[in-house]
Amino acid sequence: MAIESFSDFSLPFFVDLLKVAAIFVFLFFYTNGINQIFDIEIDKINKPHLPLASGVMDKTTATAIISASAIMVFAIVNNVGSSPLLWGSFLGFLISTAYSVNLPFLRWKKHEIGAALSIIIGRGVVLQISTFLHMQTFVFGRQINFSRPLILGTIVVSIFCTVVALFKDVPDIEGDKKFGIRSLAAILGPKKVFWICVCLLEMAYIFAIVFGATSSRPWSKLITILSHSVLALMLWKQSESINLKDKFSLQSFYMLIWKLLYAEYMLLPLVR
């Protein structure tokens, strides 16, 4: 999204892109790992196939993996020497820890607002803005400029993250209720949360279509409007076929949300 012309595609750009990818791959290892360590008993009910819940991996091994992942995050950041990446990865690390760790004032996932804000701020805001500013200022040496792709990306991805935060708990109501996790799905029930999520995503697509219509470049306008219209229609069609009483059907729809999110990441650089 920080690309402004074809001349920006250079070897230093791709090298830095790989470094950014490596940082966040290790950060996601840490995020998922620490969540599983503190959720073993819950996952035995909700996700018994996971390594720790199933007993395939022991807690000591998992702790070693997430510790090594955290070290790699900050080792690569230190090697790069970028301020945006430093504060972005540090905030991501803090939010991930606060979300999962069962200590006083932490374990934010126990409360619906804390869980949603953790995911929205971490993925929707921090990840987007820190990597964009790294590329714009550190790699390309430009002044800070919040471009159209970044504005649309931050808003739309934040909505997606809100949906992920809400919907991920729909298949997990049984375990969450047993262990005192106050998810919105446990409070309102799966049907209401399901349709809240569908409506939020459709709103995101409508916003993207309107935003795309204001573009001064015809090719960008056409791609943005057409692609988001197709995705919105596909989402609505899929939502009509979901069986809310079938856990596998719900899990399939949850994975569709992630696929739509990654499709959005591919479209955002074309917004101009």
From TrEMBL:
Cellular component, GO, one term: membrane
Membrane spanning residue stretches: 20-40, 61-80, 86-106, 113-134, 146-167, 193-213, 248-268
Gene3D superfamilies: UbiA prenyltransferase
Bilayer disposition of the protein: Multi-pass membrane protein
Primary subcellular site in the record, as a coarse category: membrane
Protein location: Membrane
Any GO MF annotation of the entry: transferase activity, transferring alkyl or aryl (other than methyl) groups
Pfam short name (any one): UbiA
Record keywords: Membrane, Transferase, Transmembrane, Transmembrane helix
PANTHER family reported in the protein's UniProt record: HOMOGENTISATE PHYTYLTRANSFERASE 1, CHLOROPLASTIC, HOMOGENTISATE SOLANESYLTRANSFERASE, CHLOROPLASTIC
Family (UniProt): Belongs to the UbiA prenyltransferase family.
Name this protein carries in UniProt: Homogentisate phytyltransferase
